[in-house]
Amino acid sequence: MEELWIYGEQGLRILLALVLSGWIGYDRSKKSRAAGLRTHALVGTASALVMLTSEFIYIHYSPMGASPDPARLGAQIISGIGFLGAGTIIQGRGSVKGLTTAASLWGVGTIGIAAGIGFYYGAILTTVIFYVLLRFATFIESGMVNRIETKRIFIQTQSNDLNIFEQLALQHNVFVDKVQYMGSDILADKKIHYILITLNPRQKNMDKYRDLMRTYGSLEGVVKLKVVGETIMDEEFD
User: Fold this and answer.
1) Are 221 and 233 in contact (CB under 8 A)?
2) pTM of the model
3) Of 4-13, 96-105, 158-167, 182-191, where does mean pLDDT reach its minimum?
4) Closest C-alpha among 101, 126, 100 to residue 113
């Protein structure tokens, strides 16, 4: 009878990890993220199994004089999931995507650890908190937080005067994070300079930023202007 109770307890832990981590994954699936319900459920359930295995080793081998560490395998989960999370992070065109999914994968791993060791209250409460964050944080950020959106501008110009770009940005009340000279080349018997400018509008209203882009595009000597990571045609700023 006691053995059946133990099996039931262990089964409950695994099923709880499956449900809780799958719930988080379901939200990711609805948002068409790379790691969805299946990935999160697998990570959480496997983490619970690892903790049950640690407990099994400790219970069965301690009486034989061994001194296994029940937390050792759990620690490997926490560090190991980082490699899985790194696979969901994509960097390109000046932006980074997948950080939230990577964090949620790591999070369901810890939920699985808690469920696997029998810390039900912590596992359930953390799942609820995670779900609320993933589900509603976007609305909170867009409605209450004035997020700072940096823009990187790639400019090809015949002028080697870098100060003019920073001066114009200040006139338009747009903060300049960095102006980088990327080198030069000879095209059609003309020397072309390549400049990368990181701008920070510091406001949600992007009118001043777009006005600055048009000003940049109308400068004498500017051959091409492109916003890195966005599909904006050069003609929009002419």
Assistant:
1) no
2) 0.49
3) 96-105
4) 126
Secondary structure tally for the chain: helices H, strands E: 7, 6
Find where tokens 């296994």 sit. 68
CA torsion 80-84-89-90 (nearest 10°) is 130
Question: Residue 200 has which token pair?
Answer: 């920070």
Least confident of 17-21, 22-26, 186-190, 198-202: 198-202
Q: Side-chain half-sphere of 94: how many Cα atoms within 13 Å?
A: 16
Give bridge partners of residue 199 from the DSSP assignment.
151, 176
Local structure of residue 34 (DSSP, 8 states)? S
Both tokens of residue 184? 């030069």
Tell me the C-alpha distance between 204 and 179, whole Å. 22
d(CA 95, CA 63) in angstroms, rounded, equals: 55
Q: Helix or strand or coil: residue 37?
A: helix
Assign 3-state DSSP to the chain and report helix, strand, coil percentages, each to 5. Answer: 60, 20, 20
What is the number of other CB atoms lying within 10 angstroms of the CB of residue 63?
7
Report the run of H or E that residue 213 belongs to, with start and end: helix 207-218
Nearest C-alpha neighbor of 84 from the set 59, 97, 101, 72: 101
Map residue 98 onto helix, strand or coil.
coil
131: enclosing H helix or E strand: helix 120-144
Spatial distance between the Cα atoms of 166 and 177, rounded to a whole number of angstroms: 10
Looking at residue 221, what DSSP letter applies?
Answer: T
